[in-house]
Amino acid sequence: MRAAAGSVSTGETRIVVSVASRKNLFILGGGLVILVALAFFPVFGSLAWTRRLVDFFLFLALAQFWNLLLGYGGIISVGQQGYIGMGCYALWFFADVLHVPLFLAVILAGLSGAIIAVPSAALVFKLRGGYLAIGTMVLAEMYRMIVSNIEATGGGSGVTIQAATEFGNESRVSGTYWWALAAAVIAIAAVYYTMRSRTGLALKAVRDDDLAAESSGVNLWRTRMYTFVIAGAGCALVGGILAISLLRIQPASVFAINWSAYMVFISVIGGLGTIEGPIIGAVIFFVLRETTSGYGGWYFIALGVVAVIVPVWNLGGIYGFVAKRTKFFVFPLRRKVKILGDGPGQAEPATQEEVSA
Amino acid sequence: MEWVNSAVQGILLGGLYALFATGLAIVFGIMRLTNLAHGDFTILPAYLALVLVGAIGLNPFYSIPISMAIMFMVGYLLQRSLLNRLVGSKIAIGVIVTFGLSMVIQNGLLLGYGPNSQGLDAGKIENMSIRISENLSIGWLPLIIFLTAVVVISGLQLFLVHTRMGGAFRAVSDDHQAARLMGINTKHIYAVAMGVALGIIVIGGTMMGIRTTFDPLLGNQRLIFAFEAVIIGGMGSGWGTLIGGVILGLAQTVGAQILGPAWSIFAGHAIFVIILAVRPQGLLARTVLAKGVAS
Amino acid sequence: MSLLEVENASVYYDDFQALYDINLKVEEGEIYAVIGANGAGKSTFLRTIAGVLSPRRGRVLFEGKPVDHMATHMRVVHGISMVPEGRRVFPSLTVDENLEIGGYRKRPGPWTEEKIYELFPLLLPLRKRQASSLSGGEQQALAIGRSLMSNPKLILMDEVSLGLAPVVIKRIYDAFQTLLDSGTTILVVEQDVQHVLTVASHVACFLEGRIALQGAPSELTNEQITAAYFGV
Which residues face A336 on adjacent strands? Predict the structure, then answer.
């Protein structure tokens, strides 16, 4: 299948801009098979492993959203934990206070993130670059403080998600597993479709040059707001699922800056600005976490060292390093230009220039 | 009278925040680098002082010059070897790298010293105060810190305006390419700037360690205070950071008066948010388009 | 030995080749003009001499010494100074301070702040003004003065007449002789072809990254120059 995004005919030669190729279709098929297999995991797999995979998919989702902010929008956020935490508490609010069915409460938690993100973005967009990053940190802190200091939300000791306790342990873990898997898929899909759309191209442009992007008609503010809202909703959705998984949420842990550390590490080591990168990063992170669980502080130092060394070595991370050499991209986000036809000396698609992301 | 007391405390606290803010502002102004480990660099000197006090039995105040020299070199080398590679990149990759650095420092300190709060003992001065009136007394220590901040900031302004290197700092901050065309070795200037910034926060960090307690994870909060003071005061203005620090300090102490101690820091955040929303370039910014802020 | 010798220099921006095998000699005490259409590579060439860019192939020799991979700031020490395109005075510094920074690397020579103000009297009343508040012509004068403060042997001027009123341009060109008298050789990139050819002793016309024509203006006809300029 040539998903021909556009073609131009000039006599004998045709120029086709395509996004996907037969190779990618193959991968897509393979991916669907994997997805189905994963969906059945809780049925066959152990409880312990199902729980682990819940965490894995949540981390993966978070990293995708973080990457959407940075890799495509040029926004570095170290405050997404604010949305995770708010998502947790939103879930508690909808499920326990308003007695909304748990399934719906999760969705509403995600939406809450989107709603909070709007004024947050309006405020934080008055800053740029590094100062914007600190601004996101401040906001996250403010959310934490509000929740911590109010009696109604349980103060510093947090709350229990009563609605989730009604389910047996196994069904709760299975439920959160499917939710987490869904979150990861939604995250990847959101990033993929954002990048393929016109907004996606806009974001790529924004990332490279504000002024250039604006002069070509891109509404800078709107596209960045859009990214921020999606990321906020996504992280809040993860928060909602996390709340059910944890059963008891406390401000100190759900609003911890550690979440940002995880997102940074996964994205950086895997590769910024790609979808494949965070997947690889999440796997590495997961392995690291499982193998160093006894080492506490060293674990975080290792995360930190990676965040220091890897960007200096190669911004594209491990995936970028590998992909550049093998020219193998799983998610076809790059637009390939093929010059076909009877033009001089062209039997094969001779020119495959990639409009790089 | 409680109000006056709070206000005075707030102003004096502001001096401390101004010192932290100045360091952050120097690094951002000259290298356009946002150092997320900045707050942790304010905690390090306190631990350094612990080491020096433990090893030589020195009064922590006297450890300051030694720590300044050490941290200056650390800053110079850090900038020259690692952070210089990040200057001039289009996305704020420095944020990521310094975030990682922050993780390393925080957790390194955790491993070395544990999570418990520590304090520095400077002797009698910690409890001495000047009695202004029946209900108002000012602690010597907070006063010294504030005056030190004023001296440092004045010194910095004099340095920037009246010395050859200070002029180079300003030129690099304006246009680093053009500065190179003047024969200025920007790689060296960046490193000196980082060294100076760290030297300045040693003063604040050690003094704060004497005044209150410190622990490895306090860095993020300090970073936020420094940042808020910079934004409130306005960038591109040396005295702006002092004003910014003072306003933040006031917001915190007066906020504690009004809302209760639990909301003290939040009150500071609230003032910051208001200023950001209403006058993002800060109170004293000379130009509307202050660097780092889009208005 | 020529003051400046460029041998087979090829300069790239990442993968894009901007200059192809440039060969050029500038003698001491002359005004050398570089002309060409937009995008021909004139500024790239100047930047290579100044050290902002390095040639991937070829050499740049200054007073016989290879400088092609010397850092920008070191070239100032050796006597090369550039007045960049767009002036690029330091906006937050005053006129005085801009000149002072120009003297960051002070080499032996006649240029001082006083001498600069003699050369450009229009700057005198503006001494304490912030450079950002100056007009285009004033900024251009300041930028030239700033570059002179290091007493360079070779001053590079990138499109100094761009966007300026004719009377201002005349004033700048009048200053050229004073520069030469003080021992500074001038390599000037210009859009205003006619004017620069009246003062230059040599001219090179760039076209798409190559030198299409080189020689003394007195020996070249208008037709030749036009042809080289437009590549017809």
Answer: A18, A354
